[in-house]
Amino acid sequence: MAKVLSARTTTARLPLLPRPWTADDIPDLSGKTAVVTGANSGLGLRTAEALAAKGAQVIMACRNELKAATALESVAAAATGPKPEVLPLDLADLTSIRRAADHLDVRENAIDILVNNAGVMALPRNVRTAEGFDAQFGTNHLGHYALTGLLLPALLRAPAPRVVTVSSIAAWGGVINWPDPNWRVIYVRWLAYSQSKLANLLFTAELDRRAAGTTLTAVAAHPGLSATNLYDSGTEKGASARLAALQQQALVAMAQPDRMGALPQLYAATMPDLPGNAYLGPGLETFGYPRRTLRNPLAYSRTQARALWRLSEKLTGITYDWPA
Ligand SMILES: NC(=O)c1ccc[n+]([C@@H]2O[C@H](COP(=O)([O-])OP(=O)(O)OC[C@H]3O[C@@H](n4cnc5c(N)ncnc54)[C@H](OP(=O)(O)O)[C@@H]3O)[C@@H](O)[C@H]2O)c1
């Protein structure tokens, strides 16, 4: 007589798909301190909430006090450990970065996790930082280069510090405009954004190389296409404003929720199984659950990474103080 399989037996024999990684899988972060830049909005806010929910002491580094105060309430509501705090930080101003870093370095015993998340995208021509850098290169790359360097002593006090820098699919179209990295001669806003996001990857690779011999690991992540306020940051007044608004609406309509978009950077910030210079993104690149992903081959260039580091030292006047 033919053997009849019960439904239960049949199911048990089917190969199981791996369960996707979600914020529930973040390990317990009790006793850890995490600094998240741009934590008042979008991916930074979701990252801060998720880290606080797992018990980390979260420091929300934000430039706008009012927005930060509102965001603080929702991170505090998610927190299961120490109360989150706001740290004033404007990445487009080296004086503000120094002030924020001094405050943290003096106060904190150690910083376990630094998420270099804040960013601006496709700003109109001639938006400049306090030091006159292009706002996208200045905020997205130079500001985070400076902040990470100034926080290095606090990071190195942690047993296994992790620096996560948030890049983008846009890095695929990036090249470093070596003759004019601050876009003074010709300005193409999307090239400037792509340059800053390639810079995030080159920075991660070089930071991880320079951290050899310490316990610090540098990794990167990108959120695919996620519905956040980022698509408003490049809004300009004038003739192209309507077209830009339509493009933004279309992009946001296709995008995944910010909570999903934050998963790659959360994985990068918290999972112990990652090698240095790992790069996380959504499974289907624009959306999906996190996995290790590919990057622009230029991001592997040691020559470019070293040259960008030297340029960042020169422009910011900040050199990293590695232990002897
Ligand atoms: N959303 C996407 O689809 C997408 C795709 C690829 C990459 N990313 C990257 O994801 C990161 C987070 O962006 P998001 O999508 O979450 O956008 P968002 O909602 O606009 O958040 C950006 C955050 O950065 C902050 N910020 C901007 N300039 C700053 C400065 N000078 N100093 C301090 N903070 C500053 C913003 O503060 P304010 O609220 O005060 O402006 C805000 O908190 C960015 O690095 C972005 O390039 C996003």
What does this structure look like?
The protein is α/β, with parallel strands linked by helices. The chain has one domain: 3-Layer(aba) Sandwich (Rossmann fold). The protein has helices at residues 7-13, 42-53, 65-78, 94-107, 135-156, 189-210, 230-233, 241-254, 258-261, 263-270, 302-316, and strands at 33-37, 57-62, 85-88, 113-116, 162-166, 217-221, 279-282, 290-292. An eight-stranded mixed β-sheet has the order 3-2-1-4-5-6-7-8, sandwiched between helices. α2 links the parallel β1 (33-37) and β2 (57-62). α2 (42-53) packs parallel to α3 (65-78) and α4 (94-107) runs parallel beside α5 (135-156). The longest helix has 22 residues, at 135-156. The chain is globular, with a radius of gyration of 20 Å. 48% of the residues are buried. The structure holds NADP nicotinamide-adenine-dinucleotide phosphate (NAP). NADP nicotinamide-adenine-dinucleotide phosphate binds next to α2, α5 and α7.
Question: How do the helices and strands line up, and which of them pair or pack?
Answer:
Elements: H1 7-13, E1 33-37, H2 42-53, E2 57-62, H3 65-78, E3 85-88, H4 94-107, E4 113-116, H5 135-156, E5 162-166, H6 189-210, E6 217-221, H7 230-233, H8 241-254, H9 258-261, H10 263-270, E7 279-282, E8 290-292, H11 302-316
Parallel strand pairs: 1-2, 1-4, 2-3, 4-5, 5-6, 6-7
Antiparallel strand pairs: 7-8
